[in-house]
Request: fold
Amino acid sequence: MNPDDDLIRKRQRARATVLALLLAAFVVLIFFITIAKIRQGMGA
Reply:
């Protein structure tokens, strides 16, 4: 392995981490929207 491979792996790992965080944030957002809609429906 040459030094460029390490740099590529670091960038891939960083990109995967950012993508995982964005996906988790999206799931949490959908969860809270769903909870809000359910509560709104119960009050009506």
User: Anything to note?
Assistant: The chain has a mean pLDDT of 92.
